[in-house]
Amino acid sequence: MEPPLFVFLQRYLEENLPRYLHMLETMVGINSFTANPDGVNHLGQVTANLFAQLEFEAEYVPAENGAYGRHLILTRPGHTDKTIGLVSHLDTVFPPEEEARNDFHWRPEGARIYGPGTVDIKGGTALIYMMLDALRMEAPEEFAAANWMILLDAAEEAIANDFGDLCRERLAGALACLVFEGGHKQDNTFQLVRARKGMAICRIEVTGRAAHAGSSHEQGANAILQLADIITRLADLTDYDRQVTVNVGVVSGGTVTNRVPHQAVARLEMRAFDDQVYAEILAKIREMTKLATVRSAADGFPCQVSLIIEQETKPWPKNEATDRLLAIWQGAAERLNLRVEPEERGGLSDGNNTWYTVPTLDGLGVAGGNSHCSERSEDGTKDQEYCVVSSFVPKAVLNATAVLDLLADE
What are the sequence ranges of the domains in the chain? Predict the structure, then answer.
């Protein structure tokens, strides 16, 4: 009796794992900090060359913001109308000087490999390659039939929404958009992401009235005091039971101590899962512009408050299309003696910009930890980003098996 296909997929992937890890080491060795467009573009070229081995053609699309690198689209047409989108990103959050300062580089250590992007998200790009390479060798007919499109964001860490526009345009009518952000693994259980919070980044500006702090203090309207009142009210909007957070992360104001400050600024972010909660809290933040609780003692001159929404990404809520994909992955996992459980994450991904036009599933990358962390300490209280080597093959087998089920089901 012929063994099931996943046996051959696993065997091929295990035999070639050293080759895949070498590919990942090459990618990790390229600094691709979002604000380093030359490094991002270099990684894009290296990635395109790697996937050319699987007969993918490369297209480079300049990011809308000229300070960023080029988005990369890799395509391999098939002979059916079945399209699968695979999403990753090229950029990381680590400036080159930070990597050097913290001696943060490719470093295998036991069951882990440390390095910038090992889990977020160069490890995910490597997993895409593994899955497609295994399908090409062990399921050549299915591989040749599908239209494969790999989309790599040049500025995901900066939440560049123009890439979302690109994904929606290119993946119109696709069976799925599969996002290869890192996925959690515990024993034989993998967690896949089916929902993410939305986020609004806001800037609050307060204008008061300056005055001499000693001789005419009563003439002043203290912008910092007004902002302090607003910050307290903003903090009160956080409600863990409703899964909404408001975080004031940056504050500035005033110039010298002998002057009543006439200006103060705060930047904050709000996150929520539910569309209605998101809209409600954002409306309450807007209401802060009506506050005038700090006034001049001399004549009642009020501080004035303005709000700028600098960036906005709507929530990705639980939905039927994503849950259908999740069920396919859960069915594949059962046959592999694995388990798949759903996860809802507070962080954003490119999936926030695709789920409402094409069925989207996330967390399909490798397991690891400490994303966005480059520091480490002798006492272990700080540790660097890493991927777990033992997660590569089973996750690639799971994804390949589920993708085949998806293609056969349509």
Answer: 5-196+316-409, 198-313
Q: Cβ distance 57 to 75 under 8 Å?
A: yes
214 to 207, 217, 260, 409: CA distances (angstroms): 20, 6, 9, 77
Cα gap 340→367, rounded to integer Å = 13
| CA angle 305–273–289, rounded 5-degree value | 10
Q: Has this prediction a pTM greater than 0.90?
A: yes
Q: How far apart are CA 240 and CA 340, in angstroms?
A: 26
Q: Does domain 5-196+316-409 have CATH number 2.40.420.20?
A: no
Domains 5-196+316-409 and 198-313 share a fold: no
Fold of 198-313: Alpha-Beta Plaits (3.30.70)
- List the pLDDT tens digit at each of the 410 positions of the chain: 668 999 999 999 999 999 999 999 999 999 999 999 999 999 999 999 999 999 999 999 999 999 999 999 999 999 999 999 999 999 999 999 999 999 999 999 999 999 999 999 999 999 999 999 999 999 999 999 999 999 999 999 998 789 999 999 999 999 999 999 999 999 999 999 999 999 999 999 999 999 999 999 999 999 999 999 999 999 999 999 999 999 999 999 999 999 999 999 999 999 999 999 999 999 999 999 999 999 999 999 999 999 999 999 999 999 999 999 999 999 999 999 999 999 999 999 999 999 999 999 999 999 999 999 999 999 989 999 999 999 999 999 999 999 999 999 86
Say if CB 267 and CB 201 are below 8 A apart.
yes
Strand, helix or coil at 95? Answer: coil
Counting every residue written for the chain, the total comes to: 410
Q: Which residues of 250-284 are buried (b: 16+ CB within 10 A; e: fewer)?
A: eeebbeeeeebbbbbebbbebbbbbeebbeebbee
